[in-house]
Design goal:
By secondary structure, the chain is an alpha/beta fold. Helix content is 46%, strand content 16%. The protein has helices at 5-16, 46-55, 97-101, 114-129, 137-146, 155-162, 167-176, 179-190, 202-214, 230-240, 257-261, 266-289, 313-323, 339-346, 351-362, 379-398, and strands at 21-23, 37-41, 59-61, 67-73, 78-85, 87-90, 93-96, 105-106, 110-111, 219-223, 245-249, 293-297, 331-336, 370-374. The protein has a 5-stranded mixed beta sheet. A hairpin with a 2-residue loop joins β6 and β7. The chain is elongated and about 80 Å long. The protein starts with a helix and ends in a 5-residue tail after the last helix. The relative contact order is 0.09.
Length: 403
């Protein structure tokens, strides 16, 4: 099994410190580039684990429960996301750490016994996620076929039966790899869930609003002339970031903006455009308040550079006002490429025109929160450098003050 050096050092430290711990997912999953690294420790050890994790450079991420911490290895282009729990939770079933750690096996890393692992993956997939993750399916099939489910009398099997997922129904389907049938069985067994109450007390609402703002996600704008690779980068980031990500267009053209221009009354046009821009920004802010990364494809900052049109004095003044209309995001990624390269990629504008726009964008380099990336590089290299920038921005928010 290939183990990332950072994880190997962390696991070795936990063991050397005499802490009892275990993996909650198959050890083979540690070699995968995606997914959380789920660990279980005793409640009394959580503070010591938190200190070890911080000392090794992982950044704690705010969470209402458990310990979440992460780091980004730019060389390996991999996010390492730790989720440290003090009880095993799967499908509304919670088992104290002590009961689980008593039946842990080591080969060589501490892991759940086979019967516990099988039912943990089944309950988590069917009841928590609504589907069995692709990466866990081979392990579930192997364990179901091996008879591991009944080997040790795992109490999770009894908890599953209480929810209608009886072993005699679940295990043959798991052994056969009939995932759609398993998911239908889980839906039928659990039935409809009661909708949560929507009544909110005023004081609770204020606390929640303050907590939402404190835990808000990061806003990242990707800007540059046509052909710099903005859409390619935004799409790659949306698909690769381990955080929930929302893409929001924030350019000064497209969408509803042509309708505003059709009003043909200067003051009214500007007002309508500002309303549209703020509506877009508000959508992005709503996603940030959910803790998401908001990727702005273009930004109002485009108003600081020339456009494809030849605007008069009023139009230029309007663009400058729009450029300052919305708050600056946490990070602005400026893609820089030669006019010749941008013309070759898109071909909409002459290379000399694009080169002049490039020079105009370059003047933004002195602005706060602007990072310049060489867009002449291959797209995967640009995406890796952008992920490192986003992670540093994210980490600065949650790092302890003395870090």
């Amino acid at each position: 099994m290939s183990l990332h050096p950072r994880l190997a050092r962390l696991f070795r430290t936990l063991t050397d410190e005499g802490l009892r711990w275990t993996l909650l997912r198959p050890p083979a999953a540690l070699a995968e580039r995606e997914g959380d690294i789920d660990l279980l420790v005793r409640p009394e050890d959580l503070d010591r684990v938190r200190a070890i994790v911080a000392a090794q450079g992982f950044v704690p991420v705010p969470s209402p429960d458990d310990l979440h911490a992460a780091d980004y290895d730019a060389a390996a282009d991999r996010f390492l996301w730790l989720h440290v729990q003090t009880e095993l939770r799967a499908g509304a079933v919670a088992v104290p750490a002590a009961a689980v750690l008593d039946v842990v096996v080591s080969d060589p890393l501490p892991r759940l016994r086979d019967d516990w692992l099988l039912w943990t993956l089944l309950l988590h997939g069917l009841l928590d996620k609504g589907a069995i993750a692709e990466r866990h399916r081979p392990v579930i099939m192997r364990l179901a076929r091996s008879g591991a489910a009944s080997a040790g009398g795992c109490p999770l099997a009894a908890r599953a039966a209480e929810r209608g997922l009886r072993a005699e129904l679940v295990l043959p389907l798991a052994a056969a790899g009939d995932w759609p049938a398993l998911e239908r069985l889980a839906t039928t067994a659990t039935g409809a869930r009661r909708a949560p109450s929507t009544r909110v007390r005023p004081t609770g609402a204020l606390r929640r609003a303050r907590r939402l703002w404190q835990r808000r996600g990061v806003g990242v704008a990707v800007i540059g002339p046509d052909g710099a690779g903005k859409t390619t980068l935004v799409t790659a980031l949306r698909d690769a970031l381990p955080f929930p990500a929302h893409v929001q267009y924030m350019g000064l053209t497209g969408g509803r903006l042509p309708r505003a221009d059709a009003l043909r009354v200067p003051g009214l046009v500007l007002t309508a455009r500002l309303v549209i821009l703020w509506a877009r920004y508000g959508i992005g802010l709503a996603h940030r308040l959910r803790g998401e990364i908001v990727l702005f494809d273009r930004y109002v900052l485009d108003g600081k550079v020339p456009s494809g049109a030849s605007p008069g004095p009023l139009a230029r003044a309007s663009r400058r006002l729009q450029a300052a209309a919305c708050p600056r995001p946490d990070l602005v990624v400026l893609l820089d490429a030669s006019g010749t390269t941008m013309h070759r990629r898109k071909g909409e504008y002459d290379s000399m025109v694009l080169e002049s726009w490039r020079a105009a964008y370059q003047r933004l380099r002195a602005s706060r929160r602007v990072a310049v990336l060489d867009a002449e590089q291959p797209a995967d290299v640009v995406a890796r450098e952008a992920k490192a920038l986003i992670w540093r921005c994210y980490a600065r928010r949650w790092s302890p003050p003395d870090v």
